[in-house]
Each structure stands twice: as structure tokens, then as C-alpha cells.
Design brief:
heterodimer, A: 285 residues, mainly alpha, 12 helices, 2 strands, B: 515 residues, seven-stranded mixed β-sheet, six-stranded mixed β-sheet, ABC transporter permease (chain A), MetI-like (chain A), membrane (chain A), transport (chain A), cell membrane (chain A)
Chain lengths: 285, 515
Amino acid sequence: MSARTGAPFRGRPSTRRRLRADIALGPVLLLGLALCFAVGPALWPKSPYATTLLAIYHEPGTAFGQWHPFGTDQLGRDMLARLLLGGRISVAIVLLSGVLAASVGSLLGTISGYFGGLVDAAIMRLADIQLAIPLILSILLVIAILGPGMQNLVLVLGLSGWATYARAARARVLELRELDFLQAARAIGASPGRILRVHLLPNLVPTQVVLMSLDLPRLVVAEASIGFLGMGIQPPEPTLGNLLADGQTAILYAPWMIVFPGLAVCMLVIGFNMTGDWIARRFGA
Amino acid sequence: MSRRVFDTRRFSRAASLSARMALLAAALAGACPAVAAGQADRTLVIAEEAGPATLDPCFIRSDAALLDNIFDTLVGRDDTGRLVASVALDWEQTTPLVWTFHLRPGLRFQNGEPLDAAAVAFSLNRILDPALGSPNLSYIRTVAEVSAPGPLTVRIRTSAPDPLLPARMSRYPAYIVPPAYLRRVGNALFGRQPVGSGPYAVTDYAPDDHVDMIANNAYWRATPRIRRVSWRVVPQPTARIGALLTGEADLIDSVPVDAIGLIRRQRDLAIDGLPGSGLTLYLGLRTRQPPLNDVRVRRALSLAIDRSSIVRYILKGYATPTGTQVGPYDFGYQDVPAPAYDPAEARRLLAQAGYPHGFSIRMQVPRRYVKSAEIGQFIAQEFAAIGVAATLQIPDWSVYTQDVPAGRQAPIYMLAWGSTQTLDADAALYPILHSGEPYSQVDLPQLDTLLDAARTTMDTEIRRALYARIQTMVTEQVPLLTLYREDQVFAATRKLIFQPRPDGRIDVFDMAWAP
């Protein structure tokens, strides 16, 4: 990645061809998954909650006149329906917490970089502390205190990831602060609030978006881990992590229960990673 | 997956066969005793779901099955559940409050220390000492004083007549420990390097990992047939089954019901289940607050649960739907059939109680018992069918075990209760139904009176009649929703002779390698 970003695109034909060659495999994969998770639950007629005790652990195929392409789970529920809804819930959590982390991190990083001094030191030491605490441990601690639930999960995932964004934002602001347009803004008496709002934050968007696309896979895995440990969204609600946890106990006699959610997590992570690379290349950030 | 595991096992069997052939050749060459020693020397590996945090009987919170192999008790219990002589040869109730036990002469602990009446008194008084804060004090709370009037005579005074005293002296925490050794090493070290008088001595112990034991050749009953035992902690059911399939473990407990078919297909493995010997699962109800203070609501919830389908399909038949918390091996057991499944009647009762459109309520179901999270989801759906919207929460076990006795649990909460310490209805009922007990959310004065009476009545027939009345009253008042009784399911290699027991003991002394 770094080798390619090191060579900025100048519009030479050979480079353009290379650009077209690696065209957007990541975004395509991601869009496909997003589409599945967005409209899938509405299109696939089976309920992700309806139990059929006679069809417990049925392998992919037809059971009692019902077609289950991904098999059924430990309560005879349709795995495809659960995977589609579980994917939707997981992606929603990941995106919401990603945006939260990026917003909080960018704001704190900008303040830190612009004002410098004591404020800077305080915020950056906070970031160091945040980065020093193991992620899963801190998440489990907070969930144990606040209780599980979508809101708390988003809050905890979002607030545990702000430090990386803050550091990147601070570095960029330190660079911007010395540029002429900013000096000019300050010279005509713009308030710090206005400078932050109008001149600094908009200039951070490209770097932060790339950073976020690279950070999202971490959140996918974190959500799956929390669900796997049983501290996430409570059953019967499916999430990718919950499905993996259910599948893990049945791996010896119902392997399809872990294979499909496992593939979904893989594709999601690969999709986000490739998209991050792609954006970085495409926009030279 | 299973195929491959099976093949590996075959391969290892072939390897061990060739090893045995080599041994045989050596034996033919004139080293005959080596063969016998080779078989007897094989280490028995037991993979358990949970391991002990300490080996000190005073402080254990679980896993008495392991300690049964290290320590002796005054009274024993045979495999039919009858109380028999053990360290005590016989005992009698001298007055309603005083019991006298006569000890077997000449017994010694594994370190050579004599096991006499003073050791017995020391062991019991240690648990009763409030300064030590033993979590197991409640099991022998009826004991007021233990003394040793002679070297082989122990006198136990109870605070009220206690028909269960001999039973209480047959199991945890009434194990006998060596006073001199314990005073020398202190409580902390004793928990790691315990010495008992039982059939096996501990050689190595790593908490939450393994306990290794070696046979006590001087054991008073006989020399144990299996020489070495290793208890390993393998919490994941899948990993436990894997260990059995690959031959790493010889005996595993808590076999997940879905894996039973897989194990049955292996020719060299056997499933050892004992119907109705496990814990009895129930949904506790916080009956002091609405809507669960109305007996019609409680009865409606009970009628909404299809117990036989849960047992048949989710538990694959390895449980018994039941209407009583008392187990079939307990004294005082009444065969109360499981409540009927009748959602229409349930809706009618709810409407009568003033909830024609049902209500919303929280429900906690820990992932601790066999398939409990699945069963919780299924029951939540059945409640929804009669209009009761139950929000399910799967609590973390370590938090839940503190919340329930402190009264911080949800209005509906799943728990399992057993009576393996005494095999008596008292242990199955009193702690979860008598008002004021930490695990009880019930306030029925009439029920309290009956439970107290049964606890202090010495006459067997009157006690039996009292427990019959108690169980009838529980059926009418539905202070909790009894669901089903689990089977204990073990799986073992066919090379091991092993028989599960109603009290959940895993006595290696009774096991042997098949010839």
C-alpha cells in the first residue's frame, strides 16, 4: 500500500490503466454485503426468530417442506434469515461506533493541536492512557457496569477508539496551523470556534475517512468478540458475534452454523480493508 | 470433522497396540510383572467442566466430587443411596439433641497422623467457627457443638432435633482433616496441598487447570485399583468431547446433549446417563411484587410452557419434565406430574387476573445449564404466545450468582437446585421456598410452617406426610415454575468400568480398568 501511495497519480496512461485494473474490488464487495444486509431481511421471507423444534440443527437443504439454504440453528431457526439480520445489526453497530469515534477523536485532536500547551498535553496523555488499556478488557468492564444493549455497545466501542483519530487530527492541525490561509483568518480576527469549524475540521475529512475505513475492521472483530463472549446484544437478537458463539458450541455436529457467519465476518473485514486501501490510493490521502 | 478425529484415534490405538506387543515380547522374555504394572499404571484422565478453586473442604464452593476422593466422612453412602458405616462404625441418637458416633479404630491420614475423635471434632468445629467464614457453614448449621469424650467417640449436639444429621455427616463439607498437619501448614497451604484419609492423595494441583492424584496404598477399605488419576479442567464442551474422542481424556462430565449421538457412534466410547439424577431446573418468580404476586398469573405462566417439547426436542430426552423440585432419589419424593401445556387456559387466567392484553416483564436465564440459553429463548416465545412480552437477558454467571442471593435478579429468573448433599426433600425445598432464605423469593406463611415442621420432626412417616402436603401446596400456589430435571450425562471409554451415582459422586475407588 505504502509503495503505491508513494507514487501519486499524474494522469499518465500506464498509471491510469493500473488504477482501472484494481478498480474497487473492496467497495464492490462491501456494497454487495451492505445491499444484502440492508434489503435482505425484507426480501427473504423466513423469520429469524421463529423456532421449529422438529428442524433443530438441520443441514443446508430442505427440512419439512421449508428450504433453508444455510441450514438451521439450535432452535430450528433459519440461518440465512438470522445471518442477514445479524449482519445488519452488526454493521449498524460498527458504523455508528466508527462515526462516534471519528467525531470525538477529530474534535479532541483539533483542539489539542490548535491550542497546544497544557490542553494539548492533557488530551494527548489521555489518548496514551486510552491506547494502553486492552480494548476487550475495557469494553467488558464497561458493559458489566452499564449492562448489555445496543446503545451501550455503540457508546463503548465508539469511545474506546477515539485516540487514534485524535492523534491523526492533531498532526494534521499542527501542519495546517502554519499555513497562510489560517494565519490570515486569525489576522482578520476570526474566533477560535470559527477557525475550528470553518477552516480546520473540513480539512480533516479526507484523512479521517481513510483512517475510519481502516479502523472499521477492528470494530467488526470487536463486536464479534463481545457477542462471542455473550456480553453484547442479547438473544434471540442475532449479531455476527452471537451467531459465531452459537456456532462454536455446535462445531462438531452442525458446522454450517459457524461457517456462514465466519465467512460473513471475513468478507466484511476484507471488504473494509480493501476499501480503505482503495480510498487511500484513489484520493492520495 | 468427526471422521478425522475418529481416524486419528484409530491410528493412536494402532500405535499403542504395537507398544503393547513390544511389552508382550518383553514379558515373554521373562519380565512378566511389567505387563500387569503397565496396565495398572495407566493414568485415568477425567475432564471436568469446572475445577476447584481450593482443595480445603472448609472453603470449597463446588466440585465436591473431586474432594470425595481425598477425604473421608463419618458416614458413607452406598451406590443405592443408603447410609452406611465409614469412619464411624455406628451411631445413635442418645437424646433428641445428641448423637454419638463410634469410630473405626486404627485409622490414619495419608501422612501417618492418627484419625481419631479429636480429628473429627477439630474438622467440624473448623467449619462452624464463624471467624473462618466458611461458605459451607449453612450445610451443617444445625450442629451446635462437637466434642470428643473418648479417643473413638464423637458427640454431636444439635440446636434442634435434626433427622438429617447422619446424612449431613456423609458428604461435603463434613470431611475429616488432619489437625496437626493443618496447624503446621496453615489454611492457605492446606488448600493447595491437602492431606486426607481417603483413597487418593494429591500429588500436584494447579488451580483451574489440573489436580493429579496417586492411590493411597494404605487406604483402610482396600488398595484402589486405579493407581493414578488426573482431573483436568476443560470448560468448553466441544473441547471436552474432543479430548474424549482423541483419547486424551477417559471420562468427561456434562456431555452436551447434541453430541451424544456423535459419541454413541464411536465403538470404544460409552454414554453413562442416570435419568433424573441431575439438578431440577426452575424459573424463580419474584412473588412479592405485581404482577407475579397473583397466583392466577403464576399459574398462567406455568400453563404456557410446553415442558415435554423442551425435553423431547431441545434436550433430546436427557431430562424429565416434572412438577416437583424434589428428586426421585430424595427422601419425601412425590411423583407430581409436570403441569399441563394449555395456552388457551393460560390466556383465560391472565384475563381473569386483569391482564387481558398481557404485560411486559424481564427474564434472566444464565448460559450455565444444559442448553439453558436456548430454552430461555423458547420459553420467552411461549410467553409471547399468551401475550406476556418477556425481555430475555443472559447474565454473566459470576455476576448472577451474586445478584440472586442478594435479591437483585429480574422478576423471572432461571436457576437449578439439587439435593446431593443429603438426598432429602429438605435440601431441595427449604432454601428456595422458605421465606427469608437468600435464594427464596417466596412468602407463604403456611408453607413456612410446614417446612419448619418437616425439618425438625424425627418420625419418618410424619415427615413423609409433611413433604407430601408441601408438594401439594406448591402445586396449588405455584411460587416458582418447576421445569424439568436434568439427567447427569457422562461419557467414558469402554476400557473404564464406571457407574454414575444419584448423588453425583465420581468415586475413582469404585472404578477399574476393564480386563
